[in-house]
Amino acid sequence: MLFTDDLGLVTRLVPIACELASRGHSIAVCNPAPAPARLIAESGLVAVPVPQLPRPTIVNKSRIWDVDCLFANIGLLDESFTRKMTAIHTDVVRDHDPDIIVDSFSPFACLAARACGKPLMTGRQRKDARTQVRAAERRL
Length: 140
Prior knowledge:
Blueprint: H1 10-22, H2 34-42, H3 67-73, H4 79-96, E1 101-103, H5 107-116, E2 120-122, H6 129-139
Parallel strand pairs: 1-2
Helix pairs in contact: 1-6, 4-5
């Protein structure tokens, strides 16, 4: 679940989700932004409805020079925001009870996977979907 309306990360996950679906896995995808939601729907996958996402309080936004700075700029220094986003992700995982969590860049998905005792797979652009799915299925 990201609060950005771009296709960069979701285009990595849709092929993985489609490959998992072709192997008989039940798939649910979370991304409430309009462009990703449309891509998800057009691919024939089920989009999980998500609650209204909180907005963080961002202090001293700066140029991004590393991942820590990026996460600070998107609100992870706001403890209330971080706790709410983690709780939302954890609730979605508990409600849908997936076999595995597939994520591309969200610390909240990682935290939810850990809290719910689910294996986590990170979707990367360099590998094809079949290779990533085989690796994910070995974790089940």
